[in-house]
Amino acid sequence: MRSAGPPPGPARPGFWRSPLRGPWLTGVFGLVLLVGITTLFVTGLLSYAAYNPDLAARNDPTPDKGWLGFYLFTWPTSPYWLYRLTQGTHVVLGVVLVPVLLAKLWSVIPKLFDWPPVRSVSNALERLSLLFLVGGAGFTFATGILNIQLDYVFPGSFYPLHFYGAWVFIGAFAIHVAFRFSRAVRGVRAGHRSQPVPGSREAAGLVTPRPAPATISRRGAVAMVGGGSLALLAVTAGQSIGGWWRRTALLAPHGRDPGSGPNGFQINKTAASVGIRPSDVGPAWRLTVRGAGRQEVLTREMLLTMPQRDSALPIACVEGWSTPDQRWSGVRLTDLAALVGLGTDTPQVLVESVQRGGAFSSVVLAANQARDERSLLAMRVNGADLSPDHGFPARVIIPGAPGVHNTKWVSRLTFGEHA
Ligand SMILES: Nc1nc2c(c(=O)[nH]1)N[C@H]1C(S)=C(S)[C@@H](COP(=O)(O)O)O[C@H]1N2
Ligand SMILES: [Mo]
């Protein structure tokens, strides 16, 4: 079927003139994205599982997930660096793939201007799926990057946006891979020199009939994009490694220098920024422990007379930054459960802080987390009292858990089932 009249502007054959475009270049970028985006999706799903959303409504930042939560499982406490690895990978890879994503879009631009715009019902469906693919990629990458760079620009709503956006994107992505995978492999196998005849089936609408002189080779273009990704890796990865490496994280939010001394490591929210008053955490502070129908109220001094344990554990935030292991010391959660008469089969525990409201002011930890002997209500870190910003008088620290589950300024622990 032919439409009357010449196609307009960018839909004209020969409007796009780069001799680089062709099945090889698109295939290379496509296969890199296939591996990269699959990894992003899996680590993203793991991040959601790490919140233990099925345990309590307050743990679930993306309500109404329905059957999209089919895969959820109880997040383990070992290895203790698990979330540091999965979320560091998720965030760093998401940043590093941006040049590849843009290069892939550039390589297929002529196809966006296919003329006539719609040839048949199946062609219309295919183009509609591309809308979800390109829109979904842009939306998911943009929400993720805005969230890590601008520090919670979407208070409360980031999680549902990123979660549901990712599912729409991955649906379109899976369809796209199913239709294009073998073409991408063929394109790459044919080699960087091969350039099919414009208009042929193998050219797949990518090869220009009116090539301009080349200013760079196809391999050079891939190297340039790879160089861009490596540069982003170099200025991003340091925040996930933490410690000294944080200085290299030029793109990291929250500044690059967390100060020195025992409390000189990354702070997410300061006490002042979440409205903690000095009187909340002063001498009048008490810890209430409840469970099995009993209740104990303790001062910080009383906590310090209980057996003090050490745990070397990192803080690993959903934003992708982490600290190296810090040496925390305090009272085991199992010892606190024992205060109200609970045995070693410590149940789940609701942790509440003195903070008034806010998504991170409380959490329900699963039984496996409460029972782990590395899980502490920490009062000290690296040999000093916790600083006000790291959660003085006491905070929770759990192996393998996302940073947000390490509640600061804790005032109440309730063991057992609760609404
Ligand atoms: N009460 C309370 N606890 C909290 C938070 C908070 O905002 N309020 N932030 C959490 C988040 S998102 C992270 S990553 C860690 C950061 O701990 P740090 O600031 O000591 O590094 O604390 C967690 N504990
Ligand atoms: Mo966090």
Structure, explained:
38% of the residues lie in helices and 11% in strands. It is α+β, with helices and mostly antiparallel strands. The chain is elongated. The mean pLDDT is 94. The structure holds the ligand Nc1nc2c(c(=O)[nH]1)N[C@H]1C(S)=C(S)[C@@H](COP(=O)(O)O)O[C@H]1N2 and molybdenum atom (MO). The site of ligand MTE has 18 residues, from loops.
Defining traits:
binds molybdenum atom, single chain, 419 residues, binds the ligand Nc1nc2c(c(=O)[nH]1)N[C@H]1C(S)=C(S)[C@@H](COP(=O)(O)O)O[C@H]1N2, five-stranded antiparallel sheet, alpha+beta, five-stranded mixed sheet, Sulfite Oxidase, Chain A, domain 2
Q: Report how far apart the termini are.
A: 63 Å
- Mean pLDDT score, rounded? 94
Question: Helix/strand/pairing class, anyone?
Answer: alpha+beta
Q: How many individual domains?
A: 2
Q: What is the N-to-C order of secondary-structure elements (H for helix, E for strand)? A: HHHHHHHEEHEEHEEHEEEE
How helical, in percent, are the residues? 25-40%
How would you write the strand order of the largest sheet?
2-1-10-5-6
Number of H- or I-type helical stretches: 10
Cα radius of gyration in angstroms? 26 Å
Low-confidence stretches: none
Query: How many E strands?
Result: 10
User: How much strand?
Assistant: 5-15%
Small molecules in complex: the ligand Nc1nc2c(c(=O)[nH]1)N[C@H]1C(S)=C(S)[C@@H](COP(=O)(O)O)O[C@H]1N2, molybdenum atom
Please describe the biggest sheet, giving its number of strands, its sense, and whether it closes into a barrel. 5 strands, mixed
What is the overall silhouette?
elongated
